Amino acid sequence: MVGDVLLYIGSIVITLWGVAHIVPTRSVIIGFGPISNDNRQIITMEWIAEGLTLCFIGLLALFITILGESQDQVSDMVYRGSAAMLLVMALLTLLTGARTPIVPIKICPLVKTAVAVLFLVGSML
């Protein structure tokens, strides 16, 4: 029961973080100032792709928890694989975007790591 609660919290947090990543895409791109159309399209694509990835991870874990047995081998693989991906993404953000003065990007590695921990602990309880 406690494990499921942690899984639900992690799923909802990372899904909302993904949505919060996608919503300001236009203003983020504008913040780069004058850049070429190609660069604008690539940054837009990558910004949205990360948001969609976070939403996918969150919704996958959420639906596995709602529809399946949250403590079977397949579910454990989903939670632990999702946690591993979030940790990789957190490291990437820590080494790149978190070096900027933008506060949401600075806290992004913390959010991803916290949700990874929730998924790992939740899958073990």
Task: Provide a compact summary of the structure.
This protein is mostly helical.
Describe the structure.
This protein is an all-alpha fold and 125 residues long. The chain has one domain. Helix content is 83%, strand content 0%. The chain contains five helices and no strands. The chain has helices at 2-22, 25-31, 37-67, 73-95, 103-124. Helix 1 runs antiparallel to helix 3 (37-67), helix 3 runs antiparallel to helix 4 and helix 4 (73-95) runs antiparallel to helix 5 (103-124). It is elongated, with a radius of gyration of 16 Å. It starts with a helix and ends with a helix.
Intertermini distance: 8 Å
- Number of beta strands: 0
Major beta sheet summary:
none
Classification by helices and strands: mainly alpha
User: Spans of 5+ residues with little confidence (pLDDT < 50)?
Assistant: none
Whole-number tally of structural domains: 1
Strand content: under 5%
Rg, alpha carbons: 16 Å
Number of helices: 5
The shape, in one word, is elongated
Determine the mean pLDDT: 92
Order of helices and strands: HHHHH
Level of helix content? over 70%
